[in-house]
Amino acid sequence: MTTTHERERCDRVVFYAAAVSSFLESSVPLYTRELRTMFAGDPAFLEWLDATWEPEESGHGRAMRELLARRWPEYRWEDAYDAFLREYTTYCGPHLLRPTPAREMLSRCVTECQAAMLYRALSAYSTDAGDAALFRSMYEDEVRHYKVFFREFRRYRASERLGALEVCGALFGRRDKAQVEDAGTALRYVNYGYSRELPFAPLEVEGATALAREALRAHFPSESARLMMLKPLAETSAAGRWIARGVGLAMKFEMQVVV
Ligand SMILES: [Fe+2]
Ligand SMILES: [Fe+2]
């Protein structure tokens, strides 16, 4: 008879999702360093980044790492994270940021939206009550982060006069880029910490992505994701709201990428 613990140890969806999140969330300080430079003239926002955003993201990284250590103690997290960081740090630097504050805030909105939706789906998927509560609270944090970045986006968008088409292009450009650079990079390094003591075979990037999509599809909050993703576009003008409705319809037929 398999125990709950054994069953949960075989759950590769939670394993791969927790590993990817632990890498990305733990490396947030590299990103804050660049944001601090771009927003040096905005002390209230910097204060929020330092006192709330960075500690909460690092906390998510720690929580994911603890979950991995608790359930899969044989997983060599440091080895995998070190290998990931060696590549990831080459992406970090001033070139990591978008060219203007409004565009940078827009890309933060997309990332927060993606993280929020992934954690919400994982919370609904989890059979372990502790995991479900943890993913739920991370989802709530990401929604709060989104709101702050969205508020800043509105301010900067007005002064930069970004129009609907520019916002639309930036939104979808960021969505694709985030998947390739962030989650894709993290996923490629998860197996660097693999141990033969683990109760499952390792999955390559395509296999892990397909498994997560299949498992989370029924739990993915497509409607909320659509609304949250298109909110900055609807914000620009009447034309933006019109495009948002058109794009929204198109998105309904597109499978959401969650990992
Ligand atoms: Fe986070
Ligand atoms: Fe966040």
Task: Give a summary of the structure in a few sentences.
With 259 residues, this protein is mostly helical. The protein has eleven helices and no strands.
Topology:
Blueprint: H1 4-9, H2 12-26, H3 28-38, H4 43-71, H5 77-88, H6 101-125, H7 129-160, H8 164-190, H9 205-216, H10 222-236, H11 238-252
Helix pairs in contact: 2-4, 2-8, 2-9, 3-4, 4-7, 5-8, 6-7, 6-8, 6-10, 8-10, 10-11
One fe (ii) ion binds next to α4 and α7.
Descriptive notes:
This protein has 259 residues and is mostly helical. It has a single domain (4-252), classed as Ribonucleotide Reductase, subunit A (Orthogonal Bundle), CATH 1.10.620. Helices cover 77% and strands 0% of the residues. It contains eleven helices and no strands. It has helices spanning 4-9, 12-26, 28-38, 43-71, 77-88, 101-125, 129-160, 164-190, 205-216, 222-236, 238-252. Helix 5 (77-88) crosses helix 8 (164-190). It is globular. The two termini are 32 Å apart. The model is unreliable at 255-259 (pLDDT under 50). The site of one fe (ii) ion has 5 residues, from helix 6 and helix 7. One fe (ii) ion is lined by residues 25, 57, 60, 115, 138, 142. GO terms for molecular function: oxidoreductase activity.
